[in-house]
Amino acid sequence: MDLSPERAEPNLERAEPNPEPVDLAAALARARSLERPGPDTPAGAAVRAWPGPPHALPQAVPGQLDLDRLLRLSLAASDGSGRLRPAPSAGALHPVDAELVVGPGCPLPPGRYGYDPLRHRVHHLGRQPDGTPPGASVELSVTPQRTVSHYGHRAWPLILLDTGHAAAALWLAARALDLAEPELRCDGRNETPLAALHFALPQAAGRTSRPERARSGELLARRSAAPPLTGTPPRDALRAVLTTAARAGAGELAWCAAVGEPRPELVEPAPDGTLRRLAAGEARPTLAVWAARQAWIADAGAVLLAHGCPTDADAPRIRRAHLRAGFAVHLAHLTAARHGLAARPVGSWQQADLGAALGGPPGRDWIVHGLALGTTHSDQEKTS
Questions:
Q1: Rounded to whole angstroms, what are the CA distances from 344 to 223, 244, 334?
Q2: What is the model's pTM?
Q3: Cα 261 to chain center, whole Å?
Q4: Is the dihedral of CA 239, 240, 245, 250 positive or negative?
Q5: Residue 374 phi, psi dihedral angles, 5° rounding
Q6: pLDDT tens for residues 123-165?
Q7: Cβ contacts of residue 300 below 8 Å, gap of 6+?
């Protein structure tokens, strides 16, 4: 197959992922502290400067994996600014980079490719590894500078959460294309790639009618709702959102939700599928302080919380917990939208030792990620 190169874009800065090793445990401890980030620094290029000319993604024929639609529904920018992507990102900075490892049965010839989400183009990087199976894998690495430029020392938890969100966007895109559930690798063992998903060919996947199948339109329409997010969600909707998150979290974290009026409390999923009270009382003002002092959270209808990842967690566990949290919150966000709720991920948390606040030992049960929920719908934000 001929890949006719398009004109290369000469104005991209070269940015390599993970230029220096990171002491992730120290980075997380500092991010959880009350220390405030310094002034903004340059974010650098919005996309890695992949070598070689850009190529359009060829149209798939029956039986091939449709990489064009898969990436359009997950990582591609909706405009040239890069701010409108199906995967949310802290500060709309999008630190996640994607490489494709393409095997037989795809519109692209087998090989390794770098993906440019702003132009929806790929750059051929070399041969695929020996033994690459049919279909394609998407490997997710990061350019930390983009997020560090604004969030400073608070960046690394956000970077990992963003990667989890990107993985979930790809996973949902496969469901929208009626593919088999992708093989997700996010065990935290590797610094790069941080996560990877393998997508089988359509004929290997077969058709499916599973109820959680995503729809293309709802993936492209997903946006983070702008505050305020007021109005307590109905109990059945909150239960569905929590159930989705707990299932997608694969046991890596615990899940609960702080609920507002008429009876402020913390609730968690019960084994019988209902919600049970974890603690009585109003938690949202405290959550607002812990979440980088975002005052609007105190008035949110409810706040979904992923918690765990103790102070003594090693780097693989930190990566795994945050990747899974981002993945699960992304799926929970879609469930919230299906129940008519406004939702907004909340990723930055300081001094948020939920376990200690509930009377447990300190340093064992930290808030890792959140999803604010409400029944009101203001104009939706176009930046995440």
A1: 8, 16, 11
A2: 0.93
A3: 29
A4: positive
A5: -160, 170
A6: 999 999 999 999 999 999 999 999 999 999 999 999 999 999 9
A7: 227, 228, 229, 230, 260, 284, 372, 373, 374
